Task: inverse folding
């Protein structure tokens, strides 16, 4: 037999660059051996450097659980807390390669409180390695991880029945677990499950086929990972390119850069730009290595068009004959990832691809018990909970259902104040109601109504604790404006709760909806040309910001009646503080429910220091521009 030809360095690198990449996760119940399996895999594939091996030997002596032998779990449990507690907390990403394929693996935590961490790892994975302890079988955690994997679009599962050495390598035990899990996966929409019996600690069926289990004639775990066929994404869709960057190095070149997430494109092909709808044809496909005659899924390219078009970051360039949908209302699954609960009606930023728009969860249809997959009624979502929700955006976006195209169907929610990612979700379908609702043109607009009344319409939003004096000041301001011939209306929190909001209580969810409704009414009144005064506790900054965004610049004036809690309690005209202190009123602002003071109100009134008439005069000066 002749020797294989010796490859040059360039040929060697080219061969490895051409290998495809498989992204997968390892998940399973606590102590099922995920980190040990992955550590063994890295060790067997010889991707560890000498210093890493030396560190593993030392760590095994200090933190290991194998009586001085190599503890492979320590290779991926990188946090000190993980090593001390013997658990996986955060997602650990590792890269390794073999002669056949390149891999990026995410080792995901098993604890329920780290569900959001597991979802992060699953969001980019093509395959999940689900571990089950052969002694324990399918557990609640197994159901949870399989559900999250299915929710995030993973359609290939490698079931690794681990610790077979502790059940005497018994085939009957393995087959029973295989049958139960295959049924479970099918019920959750995962069609492809391959089961392999392994012992991660002993290296049986990890990188080489087991000698201890001659009854199993399938591949080893590594052989399966090297050969499993993962269908390229979005093969049935036409061309889609989310624009990540508008490239304008000089006045002679304008290109639109981004990844091809579906279909293919060639110069001369007709495209449409969404959500705007402009059409053109591709002039060039530009890459760092020169122009190309075609681009397909996975390519990162820059397109130039034959015509000048208004295209921005976040737009989608798509095949004109097969474009994606455009909508601003959706049904979606949402995993909540923040310590503070999701409240319907609260405003967030929604980021889909490179596009960021304002969004609200308008309704939680139900939440899903991730352990049992039961659908439960819910008015809020807490940390690590999954809900099926309706979303409303302030602008339309181009999208595909997540099951069809991850890149155009996945989104995150961002807190508008902290910019923290608070949720991650998948779009299911556009709500049909969006197709049935259109803006009706009206000949008489707010400017015409304002001219008729001879005034500039505005919203004066009074906020402060109960008993701060905001209703008293608002009433005085309206009397002054009325005497000046202005057209006004006062919306008071208590009065509105007798009618429009009589169905709402005082939970956080109901407080958000209370302010949403009032803000919409105030907007309509301003549109009618009125000066509307709103006097509500409105304790949350997020809802006051949502109200402000309904109005044109300069129309919304936040008036903070800043009266100390002790003064408000001393007044206690309605006896509410006394009842709250006694525990007969729950969720009372300032006592057992927080008040988030305005950070930059247009008018800041010291309610405990000046007479109401003086405070009202300051508001009038603000409204009339007499600062």
Result:
């Amino acid at each position: 037999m002749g020797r294989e030809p010796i490859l040059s360095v360039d040929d060697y690198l080219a061969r490895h660059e051409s290998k495809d990449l498989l992204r997968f996760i390892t998940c399973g119940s606590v102590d099922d051996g995920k980190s040990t399996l992955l550590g063994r895999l890295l060790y067997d594939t010889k991707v560890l450097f000498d210093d890493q091996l030396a560190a593993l030997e030392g760590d095994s002596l200090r933190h290991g659980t194998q009586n001085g032998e190599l503890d492979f779990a320590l290779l991926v449990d990188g946090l000190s807390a993980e090593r001390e507690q013997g658990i996986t907390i955060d997602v650990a990403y590792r890269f390794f390669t073999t002669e056949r394929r390149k891999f990026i693996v995410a080792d995901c935590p098993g604890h329920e409180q780290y569900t959001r961490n597991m979802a992060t790892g699953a969001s980019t994975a093509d395959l999940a390695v689900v571990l089950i302890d052969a002694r324990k079988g399918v557990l609640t955690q197994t159901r949870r991880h399989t559900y999250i994997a299915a929710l995030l679009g993973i359609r290939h599962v490698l079931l690794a029945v681990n610790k077979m050495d502790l059940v005497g390598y018994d085939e009957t035990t393995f087959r029973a677990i295989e049958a139960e899990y295959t049924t479970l996966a099918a019920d959750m929409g995962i069609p492809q499950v391959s089961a392999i019996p392994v012992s991660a600690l002993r290296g049986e069926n990890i990188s080489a086929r087991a000698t201890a289990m001659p009854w199993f004639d399938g591949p080893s775990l590594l052989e399966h990972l090297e050969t499993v066929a993962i269908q390229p994404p979005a093969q049935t869709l036409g061309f889609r390119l989310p624009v990540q960057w508008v490239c304008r190095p000089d006045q002679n070149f304008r290109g639109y850069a981004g990844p091809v997430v579906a279909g293919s494109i060639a110069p001369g092909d007709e495209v449409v730009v969404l959500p705007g709808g402009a059409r053109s044809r591709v002039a060039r496909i530009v890459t760092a290595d020169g122009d190309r005659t075609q681009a397909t899924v996975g390519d990162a390219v820059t397109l130039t068009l034959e015509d000048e078009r208004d295209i921005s970051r976040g737009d989608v360039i798509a095949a004109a004959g097969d474009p994606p949908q455009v909508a601003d209302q959706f049904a979606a699954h949402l995993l909540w990832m923040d310590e503070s609960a999701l409240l319907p009606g609260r405003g967030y930023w929604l980021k889909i691809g490179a596009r960021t728009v304002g969004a609200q969860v308008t309704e939680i249809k139900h939440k899903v018990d991730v352990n049992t997959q039961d659908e439960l009624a819910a008015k809020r979502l807490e940390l690590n909970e999954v809900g099926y929700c309706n979303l409303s955006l302030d602008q339309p976006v181009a999208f595909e259902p997540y099951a069809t195209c991850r890149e155009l169907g996945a989104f995150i929610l961002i807190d508008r104040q902290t910019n923290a990612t608070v949720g991650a979700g998948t779009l299911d379908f556009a709500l049909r109601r969006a197709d049935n609702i259109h803006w009706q043109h009206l000949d008489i607009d707010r400017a015409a109504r304002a001219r008729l009344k001879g005034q500039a319409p505005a919203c004066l939003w009074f906020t402060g604790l109960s008993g701060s004096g905001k209703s008293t000041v608002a009433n005085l301001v309206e009397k002054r404006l009325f005497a000046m011939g202005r057209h006004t209306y006062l919306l008071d929190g208590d009065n509105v709760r007798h009618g429009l909001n009589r169905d709402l209580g005082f939970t956080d969810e109901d407080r958000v909806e209370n302010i949403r409704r009032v803000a919409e009414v105030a907007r309509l009144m301003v549109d009618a040309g009125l000066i509307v005064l709103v006097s509500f506790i409105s304790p949350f900054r997020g809802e006051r910001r949502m109200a402000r965004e309904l109005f044109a610049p300069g129309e919304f004036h936040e008036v903070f009646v800043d009266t100390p809690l002790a003064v408000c309690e001393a007044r206690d005209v309605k006896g509410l503080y006394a009842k709250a202190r006694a525990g007969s009123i729950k969720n009372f602002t300032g006592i057992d429910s927080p008040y988030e003071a305005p950070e930059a109100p247009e008018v800041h009134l010291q309610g405990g220091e000046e007479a109401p008439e003086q405070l009202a005069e300051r508001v009038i000066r603000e409204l009339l521009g007499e600062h």
In short: Confidence is low (pLDDT under 50) at residues 78-89. The chain has four domains: 9-227, 240-319, 325-432, 448-624. Residues 563 and 607 are 4 Å apart (CA to CA). Residues 448-624 form a domain with the Rossmann fold fold (CATH 3.40.50.300).
